[in-house]
Each structure stands twice: as structure tokens, then as C-alpha cells.
Amino acid sequence: MSQALFNPFKDLIFDEHFCFLTGALTNEKMTVFPEWLLNHFKFGEERIEMMDKTKSYTYADLKVPCSVEVKAAFDALDLKVQEAYKNGFEGMASLDQELLFQWTGRMVYGLLYYEMLYERDRLLKQGEEFELAGALKERFGYFHLMLQSIIEPVSFIGKKPWSIVVFPLKYSSDIFSYRDDAVNLMFQFGVNGFGFIACLQDNGVIRENQNEILEKMEGHVLHPVQFEELYARFHYSDYILQYKPEYKIENQEHGVVIEVETNGKQPVFGLWDENIFAQLLSNYWQVYGIERDDILKFQKPPLSFLENPYSKDFINPESIKLPF
User: Fold this and answer.
1) Residue 173 neighbours by CB distance under 10 Å
2) Residue 1 — very low, low, confident or very high, per pLDDT cuts 50/70/90?
3) Beta strand 56-58 pairing with 268-269
4) pLDDT over 60 at 260, yes or no
5) Among 126, 233, 317, 320, which one is least packed by beta carbons within 10 Å?
6) Counting beta carbons within 10 angstroms of the beta carbon of residue 54, is it exposed (0 to 12), middle (13 to 18) or buried (19 or more)?
7) Contact 302, 296 (CB under 8 A)
8) 200: nearest Cα among 214, 189, 187, 219
9) pLDDT tens for residues 68-106?
10) Measured between alpha carbons, how far is residue 102 from residues 25, 73, 146, 148, 175 in Å?
11) Using alpha carbons only, what angle is made at residue 159 by residues 154 and 161, rounded to the nearest 5 degrees?
12) Cβ atoms within 10 A of the Cβ of 129, count?
């Protein structure tokens, strides 16, 4: 880990007077979710719960301390994404994946920041010390370093540390679908025209694992029920992934260079348990009234809207009669 750049996870520094990205003293703040996104889809007053479900905030109230430099950098990035968004799938797909990593990472890190604040304050009230496991400190520290690429000379060579997929998606024009798993650094975003899924620190392993279905999808505009199934596949794959991302990080004259290290180790996925996956998938499909028992039926293959269970052919989205 580079010692030259701020790492809040080293000493667990989460304070409203220190910029979340650089550690600089500041009185400035910025929203966790881009303001144009909050305004466009009008979800600023909706509430989001912390992981333990005992604390919630409105999306508009989620703000992180930032330096003027950091706010300007994310404002500039927002303008690029907003312009791309106007052109739907083609616009978003044309964006460099590093920009999508930074844009997505801002929201995921902001939510992670609030989880850290909440847990710290909860433990302090109980007279306990706030601490994180060493593996989480390292993982989140790497993520934070990568996010600093928006303002610092941090570059990536070779294989990228993330899996990001962008695809055409059909939604009603006023629907905005969003999910995250901040602790596992995952994000899902879908609107009329496009959707994308991001695993922000898996070293591209999950995309490789799901490459077969991604290739079958090409040329199709996904139905929302397919989008939810695809994200469930990514999410569950992350859950059973038995792999610790490792990096070679060098301080060179022109900045910090990050390279994915494999050390000859092959990523290993644990056993895919259809019962657990069906339960996860039913959570995503509940809007369609599809329950776990509808997904798993005795002596029948699991229900899928992505692949025909017998031929393994991709299911044409236009053949799906569910609403979108």
C-alpha cells in the first residue's frame, strides 16, 4: 500500500472535518449520490437503511466531507456521465471503464463511509472500541487508493481490478432500479435504455465466470426480470468466490501504478447451492410475485429467464410476458 496517499482505514479516520478521499481539512461536503441523479429520478427524500436495519437516512442527506479539489473532480465526472446518460446504452457503453469505476465507486464508498460512522458511533455508546478485521482494512484500503485515481496520478496496468458490464435494458421511462452491497463493493443500476453491474474489487474474476451468459446476451435488450437474475448471479458468485485479490503497487516517478497479481493462483468458486441462490433470487423477483418455491420445483430445473433450462439457449426478452 502506498504510504504517500491518505488511507482512512489505517487509523480508521472518519471525521466530518477530513476529506473522505484526501484527508485534507475541510468544511466542504458533497452528496454521496450525484445531485443530477437525485433530481432526475426524484428519490432524494426516499430512505435508505443501514445494514443492521436500525438506522436510516434520506438519500439527499447522505453527504461526505470533501476538499474543493475532490468536489470539482467529481462534478466534472458527473457532467461526463450525465452527457453519456442522455445517449442511453451507446453513451454509457462508450465511457472508459475507469470513469465508471470512479463514478460508481463514489456512491459505494459513500455508503461504506456511513456504515463505518454508524458502527463507530454505536460501539462508542457502548463503551467499546471501533475496530475492523485486518482483511477488511486491507480490502477497503485498496479500494480507497484506486478511487483516488480521480485526482491523483494512480494508474492501472494489465488486468483491471473490477468487473463492470453495461448492456441494453428495457424499463418504463420513469423507473430507476438501484441496489448496492457496500461491504462487498458491489453496485447495480438500471433505467430505461441501459443497465450496468459493477463488482469493484474482484479483479475481473466474476465477469470471466459469467462470460458465457454475457456472450449469449449480446444483441438483446434485456427485460428487467433478466437484469435482476443477472445481478443475482454476480452477487451470489461474489458470495462463493474463494479468492483474495492481490496487487503489486509501485511508487514511480509519474505516480502510483497498480497491477493485479495472480501468483499463479486460479480463482476458486465454492459450491453453487441452488437453494441459497433461489432464496437470493426470490428477493429480487418479489416485485413479480415470484417466490422461492416458484424457482425451485420438485423434479424440475430451476426457473430462469436468462436461459432455457434444457437447451441452454438465451431466452428472447420479447417472449417474456411480465411487465417492465
Assistant:
1) 7
2) very low
3) unpaired
4) yes
5) 126
6) exposed
7) yes
8) 187
9) 999 999 999 999 999 999 999 999 999 999 999 999 999
10) 22, 10, 8, 8, 24
11) 60
12) 9
